[in-house]
Amino acid sequence: MSLKWKWRYQSAGNSGEDEIIKARGMLFTSSHPNEDGFYEVKRIKGRRDGDMITGLVDAGTSVPGNAPYAGDNLIRPKIRKRPQLTGSGLQFSLDNGEYSNVFYADFLTPPLYLEFHSVPPYPDGPSSPNTELGVVFKAFII
Question: Judging by beta carbons within 10 Å of its beta carbon (0-12, 13-18, 19+), is residue 68 exposed, middle or buried?
Fold first, then answer.
């Protein structure tokens, strides 16, 4: 049995960012959390700026251009001020050949969610055409 979640994020609109990002969809996770309260995401559906999400990028690997930062595809319910994602993040592929990893950047002050978005030819890091922008992330079990 798995749990079904609704999720969404959009760019936070801070730091003078012009680009508006919107992503939303469904997640399907394990039915039992780990010792830290995180559930393993098994499947993802949805869209990012109109492009269809085609699947998860395997936990323990990196999206193109984001090595050595591997995602873990873990999520937990929103409880108090605890982040729902880890610093490794939830990562997925898109039907246009692009990739995204949304994660909790607790190394920033103040901490916030970021989306690393990888675009062909997949240069290393947040170099154009890749981006790394602040986002507001929310998810809940339905």
Answer: exposed
